[in-house]
Amino acid sequence: MLVANPNDTAAEVSISFYTEQGPRNADPVTVPARSRLTMSASDTIWARSAGISVGSDQPVYAERAMYWADRSEGHTATLTSAPSRQWYLAEGCTDYGFETWITILNPGNAASAVDMRFLCEDGAGQAGTVVVPEVSLYGPGRRSGTCSMGAAAHANKWYLAEGATHSGFDTWLLLYNPGDVDTTATVCAMTSGGEQEIDEVRVAARRRVTVKVDDYYDGSLSLRVAAAEPLCCERATYWSARSGGTCSTGYAR
Fold first, then answer.
1. Coil, helix or strand for 121?
2. Is the pTM here over 0.90, yes or no?
3. Which CATH superfamily is 99-252 part of?
4. Residue 69 carries which DSSP code?
5. Residue range 132-181, pLDDT digits in tens
6. By CB neighbour count within 10 A (0-12 exposed, 13-18 middle, 19+ buried), where does 91 fall?
7. What is d(CA 193, CA 48) in angstroms, rounded to the nearest whole number?
């Protein structure tokens, strides 16, 4: 766990690990002003899966970093400041040797019923209330892994800062339309030479569309997506024949 204290005063930070056997609380830690705390989950829990909650008497920023295979692989995710009754996760793949896992944390004092719906590119859906979910995706042999929190709401405009389609990098844009109305999304590349429209994509209701950005642009870029109807966007980037990768939910406006 990584906790940054940007304040001019010290912060008293408490971290709880929610395992499948119940919560385990680490000892409170004082994080000095304008300092970072690094805490290994193994010091509190060992050989267990867990969701994480961070509490503080001062506003702080927190991320979770996870590594495996002697730290040759890893991924990271920022925390959310509040649970929600609804979440959207645009990325997911169970083909080409990929594994997709959805982990759900219920920080409340009562059990919660979870309803999940998987929407595929061909429109197929499976019905399965979500409080704090995260999606983790691992490549063949778990040689690579990505993780993202997802979005608590959909929007008409999205910005994604990272992207590369050169030097062995591949970038994919995932567009997910959770609504009941078809929409059209305009995708623009924001580059060092300015902005240019690279594609206009039709996203049917309750469908996901995958756009391989490499087919439209060669170089480093950010992405801007504008749609007539609200949708959700994520960006996945892979390199070295998919032996490594990152994934991030866009910033909605």
1. coil
2. no
3. TM1070-like (2.60.290.11)
4. T
5. 777 888 888 887 888 887 788 899 999 998 899 999 999 999 999 999 99
6. buried
7. 48
